[in-house]
Each structure stands twice: as C-alpha cells, then as structure tokens.
Specification:
Helix content: 40-55%
Structural class: alpha+beta
Shape: extended
CATH superfamily of the largest domain: Trigger factor, C-terminal domain
CATH class of the largest domain: Mainly Alpha
CATH architecture of the largest domain: Orthogonal Bundle
Mean pLDDT: 93
Low-confidence stretches: none
Radius of gyration: 31 Å
Distance between the termini: 57 Å
Oligomer: single chain
C-alpha cells in the first residue's frame, strides 16, 4: 500500500491510496468465500461452484463490490496512521480503479484540524463560586441518606402520599382500551411523578381491593401522538400498600454508618460536602473559563467535522441503551424521534465539543506543552482505577489502539488545567 496526500481548500485533504494486486486478490478470495453460498450454478451444488466458473458466468467483477466493501475501509485505517495531518471527519471514498492482477486505487477525502486563531486565553475573568457548606446543607444531605435507608412496611389503610403500592390498571380513551395502557401488580410510589400529571394524586384515599376510576388528560406534547391531549379514564385497583419508614437519626444509626456518635457522623458529612463543593466549583470554573477562551478564538470548522461528532454522540447513546437492554428500534418507536431529529438535537453539543477541543489543542501548542512518560503512566493509573483493571492491562489496550489519541487526550487535559489555573475569579 502507498499513500499520497493532496491538500484541498477548507481544511480538507484527499488521500490517494494504492493497494497491491496481491492484497486485492486476498480480498477477492475472501469475497468468494463469503458470497459463494448465495450463488446457484447449473451442475453444481449451491455453494460448491469454483470461483473461476462463477466469474465466467457472471463476469470477473462479480466479487469486486464485496471485496472493495471490506478492503477500502481496512486499507484506509492503515493509511490513517501514516498521515501526519489530524483527521477529524469520516472519509468520503471514491474508487478510481480496481482490476484483478493490477490492484486498487481509491481516494479518501476527509476534513482535518482547522487553524485556530486564539484570543485571550490566560487570565480570563469568571464568576467566583461560593464553596461554603452550611448547616442546612448538612441537614439536607442527612435527610437524603435517611430517606435512602428507609424501609417499607405493609399497612391496611387507604393510600397516602409517599406510599408504595402495587396497582392493577387499564386505560381507556373514548371508551376504548389503548395499547400500552394496561398493567398488573405495577409498583408505583405515590408522588414520584411516574405517571401523567394528576394520576397519582387521585389514588390518594383509595382502599385495598376497591376499584377506583382515575380521570386524566394526556399532555399535549405526549410522545404517543395518538394519545396527546386526549381525555382518558383509568380503571384501577390497589392490591397492596406499603408505608415508608424513615430511620431515626440517633447514635445507633450513626454506629451503623461507622461512627460513634451523631456528632461524628455530621462532621463526616460536612467534610464530604466540602470536598464535593470544591470539586463542583472547580468544574464550574473550568467550564466557564474554557467557554470564554472559545468565545475569544476564531476558527472555520468544516461541516463534516460537526456531522462526524454528532454521529458519534448518537452512537454512544445507542450503546448505552443497548447496555440497559433497550433496542434502538424500540426506543425510536417509543419516543417518535427520527435520526434526523436526533442529529438536530445533538448539534449544539457537537459544536461545543469540537470547538473546545480545537481551542484546547491550540492553547497547548501555544504554550509548548508536551507529553512525558510520567503523564502517560498517570493516565494509565487513572483509567485502571476507573475501570477496575490492572495498570499493565490498560497500558496494553491503549497502546494497541495507537499513541495518537492517548497523547491528544493528555495534552487536552493539560490545556484545561492551564486555562483553569490562570483564570481570575471576580
């Protein structure tokens, strides 16, 4: 494989990639193995016809498309590592020539990192953040912890706000049951806001085993358009009621948390809150300072870079949904969102990410920042702790992916710290 690079206008380059005849032949052989089972040739069992027979009947290019579909992206990835320019978009491919015995020539047009003209980036003014921890903050945190440790006990009385109930329900619009409007032994906490506005309030006072009608209207912006704004009736029956039992704050509770007294427990809570507030303040300071530096800078970013980032954000979201066991098609159906609509929604986030990254890289270059072995080791250790892995394992994984991305991440973090440390609180 050989690669040549032509610079284009607008922070773009065209890579011309030449693939040897030998590598193209390997791709064709692989394509034949993949496709032969789909081809029927008279006189041969399906999938058993020799390659030359298939090519004679359907033309020698019969396997070209399949071979190129695999070959072009693979060879591009190899070429990507050889190019000095920082590529920031997905490639647009064009096959120039492809012929068995001669090899393949294709081009990949990509957007590269545009030039950034920095404005003021040292000493930008940002709002001071109050990091004082008040007695009220401590009490609020403790109430939250007590609430988390609450138990639920079955009771034989009408439903009250805050109760956890098991509920049978079925919804009707214009006298007809609608899809998705039925549930049995559904666990619902009254006041949680799980159901549409007004539903949970009307269950207060309901008795176990008694039928109760709940009359509510779906919001105008409800995700299911056929129900949006419609009046509905839910036939409900409460099967079980559990009352929330919040523990008392005393020395016994403090002992369960690992402290001798309530006073000791409160002191620990205050200390943790002080650390949290300092970290939050640091994060706010960093975000505001970087936003100011981005605002002061000038750059022209190719559209392809934003589009690539938008797709990456959506792909990350799809993966998170999959980890939660939710299929993408089901999510789209449930929310009514289209891919185009999602692209619009994530556009501001994509722009912020790209512009911040470009500016941070420019600051790093302006300040002559470099990556040391100590920086790399620290990054390995940080990631190992985050993912609960051995440091050597993390190092092996990251080095296998190439050093470019790792060093870029380290440099960006250094630039973030530099801008934050030099910002002035007013």
């Amino acid at each position: 494989m050989s690669v040549s690079v032509e610079k284009l206008e607008g922070s773009r380059i065209k890579m011309t990639i030449e693939v040897s005849a030998e590598d193209f032949e390997k791709a064709l052989a692989s394509a034949y193995s993949k496709e032969k089972g789909k081809i029927t040739i008279p006189g041969f069992r399906k999938g058993k016809a020799p390659r030359n027979v298939i090519e004679k009947m359907y033309g020698k290019e019969v396997f070209y498309n399949t071979a190129l579909d695999d070959l072009v992206p693979d060879e591009y990835e190899k070429a990507y590592e050889e190019v000095d320019e920082e590529i920031m978009s997905s490639p647009s491919f064009e096959v120039v020539s492809a012929e068995a015995g001669k090899g393949v020539v294709f081009t990949a047009t990509v957007a590269v990192r545009p030039e950034v003209t920095l404005g003021e980036y040292k000493g930008v003014e940002i709002a001071a953040v109050d990091t004082t921890v008040t007695d009220e903050d401590v009490e609020k945190k403790i109430r939250s912890e007590l609430d988390k440790d609450a138990r639920y006990e079955k009771v034989e009385r009408p439903v009250k706000d805050g109760d956890r109930i098991k509920l049978d329900f079925e919804g009707f619009v214009d006298g007809e049951a609608f899809e998705g409007g039925k549930g049995e032994n559904y666990t619902l906490t009254i006041g949680s806001g799980q159901f549409i506005p007004g539903f949970e309030d009307q269950l207060i006072g309901a008795e176990i085993g008694a039928e109760k009608e709940v009359n509510v209207s779906f919001p105008e912006d409800y995700h299911e358009e056929s129900l949006a704004g419609k009046a509905s009736v839910f036939k409900c029956k409460v099967n079980e009621i559990e009352e929330k039992q919040v523990p008392e704050l005393n020395d016994d509770y403090a002992a369960d948390k690992g402290f001798e007294t309530v006073k000791d427990y409160k002191a620990s809570v205050r200390s943790d809150l002080e650390v949290d507030k300092l970290n939050d303040a640091r994060g706010k300071k960093q975000d505001e300072a970087i936003a100011k530096v981005v605002e002061n800078a000038k750059m022209e970013v190719p559209e392809e870079i934003f589009e690539t980032e938008q797709k990456m954000i959506i792909r990350d979201y799809q993966q998170r949904l999959a980890m939660q066991g939710l299929k993408w098609d089901d999510y789209v159906k449930y929310t009514g969102l289209t891919l185009d609509r999602m692209m619009e929604q994530v556009r501001p986030q994509a722009e912020d990410r790209i512009k911040s990254r470009l500016v941070l890289q420019a600051v790093a270059e302006a300040e002559g920042m470099t990556v040391t072995d100590e920086d790399r080791q620290k990054e390995y250790e940080t990631m190992a702790e985050a993912y609960q892995l051995e440091v050597d394992k993390v190092k092996e994984m990251l080095e296998a992916q190439g050093s470019k991305e790792l060093e870029k991440d380290i440099i960006i973090k250094k630039a973030m710290e530099f801008i934050t440390d030099n910002a002035k609180e007013v």
